[in-house]
Backbone:
């Protein structure tokens, strides 16, 4: 086995660390070092309450590569407190395929999210302070597009009135987004270095001017970007922790996959490629969201060339796609499983159209029957795609060796011919239609009148030649979370389009997607507590 890497604990930061935390930080210069590693993406079918285990497979696959003698490095996103205390839970893997220290990672970790929240809040405060002290830039209070942020699911903050009372500023409507939906999170995930970070922060559009012209107002015009960069100077550095088997894992940034672009930072991935022979990374939710944005936004922005992909699926999830209620998923049902199998085929085609060869990982659960597992294997093989049974939750790296060997075969084949889905010079509407039709399988796209006006404004103000970041439900290929499997004859509705000029893309919000989630009737937070011995209960 490769030599075990132990990272510095919080009480003894490593030599590259500039802040305390459960690990060490890597020097940003690694992001500019020559790449020697090969990039492998882990994606999945659409998530269901049955669970797919994409993060667990990612950790297990990196452990398996190291068991086979390869210097593999794992790159993952940092989890948000909103999902941790809500429904989804943490994002540190599970079973014998976890990143450590799991509890710290799922809670405050190194303070990156807090730094992003502070930088975001500073810009919000400076906007309203500018209005209060005369509004020299002529900002339209009703045209302010920069929201406020908090790292918690709180539906009461989706719409609010601020500035109420004498001397408290300009009274106006305001909204909050969760930190993973903040443009600053996307900027940190895509920035190359501190200079690039400051330039991107300056490019943030905070609103428009009064009058008919409606010119964009930028953060740099408010004089905010220098101080925002100071708040983010340490958060820009990737965080080094370890897997349960001692392999290196770089966790950095956490943009949501259904709202933002859903990938860990470019700096982290580039550092991994400079240090390792194989880099295993994941992208949020299914191939229709995370993988598409990984290919069209992150790889394009960073000049990355992925050479293989893993598509994670479970028997339980596919049975749910085939119409079985969650309460009956542990019962063998090959009929429902057969109905759900086209869902795998759709996601396989999604990855293949980017020129990246793919292997399907069947993430095994104890309730899976031999007949069900064999049905999935046979179906995938008939697609002409390799498939491997994966049992990393129960067995750690040993349970992922078959999958690792299949990925190595893809890497050695030299078949990868990565290409983005569209040319960024195409009109915004055309880019949105391309994703909707070629990735989701939609018949077409309908734009609201507000979206139509926004697109015209964005193209007139220099944002027509960027990638598009599609924001939609993760639970369906459509923009309706209730439509499972592979729907047909549907159209995508784009209700809102806005520019993330600092991040370098245009966001298209589809259906009823929200940038501030709410808590469930019984949130996960209700089952959490600190035990008398200092250990944590209910956090996973």
Residues:
């Amino acid at each position: 086995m490769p030599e075990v890497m132990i990272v510095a604990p919080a009480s003894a930061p490593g030599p590259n660390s500039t802040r305390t935390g459960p690990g060490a930080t890597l020097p940003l210069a690694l992001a500019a070092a020559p790449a020697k590693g090969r990039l492998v993406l882990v994606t999945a079918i659409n998530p269901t309450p049955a669970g797919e285990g994409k993060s667990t497979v990612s950790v297990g696959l990196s452990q398996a590569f190291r068991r086979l003698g390869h210097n593999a490095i794992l790159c993952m996103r940092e989890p948000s407190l909103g999902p941790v205390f809500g429904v989804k839970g943490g994002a540190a893997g599970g079973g014998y395929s976890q990143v450590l220290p799991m509890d710290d990672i799922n809670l405050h970790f190194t303070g990156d999210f807090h730094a992003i929240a502070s930088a975001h809040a500073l810009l919000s405060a400076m906007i309203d302070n500018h209005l209060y002290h005369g509004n020299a830039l002529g900002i339209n209070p009703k045209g302010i597009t920069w929201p406020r942020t908090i790292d918690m699911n709180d539906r009461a903050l989706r719409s609010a009135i601020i500035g109420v009372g004498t001397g408290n500023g300009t009274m106006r409507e305001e909204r909050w987004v969760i930190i993973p939906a903040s443009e600053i999170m996307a900027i940190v995930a895509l920035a190359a270095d501190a200079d690039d970070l400051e330039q991107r922060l300056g490019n943030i559009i905070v609103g428009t001017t009064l009058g008919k012209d409606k010119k964009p107002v930028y953060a740099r015009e408010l004089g905010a970007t220098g101080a925002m960069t100071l708040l983010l100077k340490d958060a820009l550095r990737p965080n080094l922790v370890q897997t349960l088997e001692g392999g290196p894992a770089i966790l950095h940034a956490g943009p949501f996959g259904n709202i933002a672009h859903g990938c860990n930072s470019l700096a982290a991935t580039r550092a991994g490629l400079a240090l390792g022979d194989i880099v295993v990374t994941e992208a949020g939710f299914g191939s229709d969201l995370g993988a598409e944005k990984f290919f069209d936004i992150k790889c394009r922005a960073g000049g990355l060339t992925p050479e293989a992909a893993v598509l994670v699926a479970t028997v339980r999830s596919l049975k749910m796609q085939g119409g079985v209620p969650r309460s009956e998923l542990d019962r063998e049902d090959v009929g429902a499983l057969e109905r759900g199998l086209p869902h795998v085929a759709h996601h396989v085609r999604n990855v293949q159209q980017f020129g990246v060869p793919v292997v399907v990982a069947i993430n095994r659960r104890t309730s899976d029957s031999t007949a069900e597992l064999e049905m999935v294997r046979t179906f995938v093989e008939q697609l002409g795609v390799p498939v491997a049974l994966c049992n990393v939750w129960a067995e750690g790296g040993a349970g992922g060796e078959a999958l690792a060997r299949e990925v190595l075969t893809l890497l050695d084949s030299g078949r990868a011919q990565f290409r983005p889905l569209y040319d960024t010079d195409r009109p915004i509407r055309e880019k949105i239609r391309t994703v909707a039709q070629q990735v989701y399988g939609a018949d077409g796209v309908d734009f609201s009148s507000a979206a139509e006006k926004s697109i015209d404004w964005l193209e007139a103000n220099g944002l027509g030649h960027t990638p598009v970041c599609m924001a939609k439900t993760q639970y369906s290929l459509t923009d309706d979370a209730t439509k499972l499997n592979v729907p047909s004859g549907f159209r995508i509705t784009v209700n809102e389009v806005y520019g993330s000029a600092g991040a370098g893309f245009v966001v298209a919000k589809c259906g009823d997607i929200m940038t501030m989630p709410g808590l469930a009737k019984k949130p996960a937070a209700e089952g959490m507590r600190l035990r008398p011995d200092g250990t944590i209960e209910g956090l996973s």
Remarks:
- Confidence is low (pLDDT under 50) at residues 1-20.
